[in-house]
Amino acid sequence: MKKQWLFGAMLLFGACGGTSGDVIGQLIETDSPDTAVVPTAVIHPSNPVAAENMSDPPPTAADDLESAFAALMQARIECGRQPYSCDVATFTEVNSPIYNDLTELITTRRSARITATGGGEIRYRIDKTESLSPSKALVYTCITDDVVLVDGDIIFDDSMMSSLVTFTLTKVEGQWLWNKGTPTRWTTEEDLCGFDA
Question: How many CA within 13 A on the CB side of residue 29?
Fold first, then answer.
């Protein structure tokens, strides 16, 4: 149960990135220790461009998975900050293993009044994506999380966790959703991702 709780807690604040191996996701700190700014997407209308003027290749299946994963992780971060307005069904497949685990975790956090603060940070990267079928894929990640959890003014948890996690994503009605998160290695003793190196 402790391993499941630690993994659930890590999932609640994790984020994502791309296949470059670089650190591409982290919470942005502000001047105030009580708040953090999360980047938001701004969608601008696009103008049609002739094919001969396009220098970027069309998006690949890996690009699609990484983009979808980023949105799922962002929803996860918001759940940690605002557990009372969190709807786990918006980023997980209903009745999947991760849906059940996160629903239980969010319920516990709500009843205990535990939320994430702007203290600490999440660093992460996607190491690899693997398409198993048009509607099922794996995303291999490395996440280091030392976000501070509080109960009002009391620090609940300020420890660090680092893990290698394989996420199973399923496409439901055209949208990628988390189905399962399987930690292959995790520790509270060191940064497995090498972000502090």
Answer: 11
Helix (H) or strand (E) holding 28: strand 28-29
Closest CA to 74 of 20, 14, 128: 14
Are 189 and 163 contacting, i.e. CB atoms less than 8 angstroms apart? Answer: no
Confidence class for position 124, pLDDT limits 50, 70, 90: confident
Distance CA 48, CA 37 (A): 33
Instruction: Report the C-alpha dihedral over residues 117, 121, 127, 131, rounded to 10 degrees.
Output: 10
Q: Domains plus CATH for the chain?
A: 2-31+59-187 (3.10.450.50)
Over the stretch 7-16, which tens digit does the pLDDT of each residue have? 443 444 433 3
Could you give the CA distance from residue 171 to residue 179 in angstroms, rounded to a whole number?
9
How many Cβ atoms sit within 10 Å of the Cβ of residue 186? 16
Q: What is the distance between the alpha carbons of residues 85 and 190, in angstroms, rounded to a whole number?
A: 33
Which range (36-50, 57-71, 98-112) has the least confidence?
36-50
User: Which two three-digit tokens encode residue 97?
Assistant: 């293993």
Angle among Cα 164, 133, 193 to the nearest 5 degrees reads 15
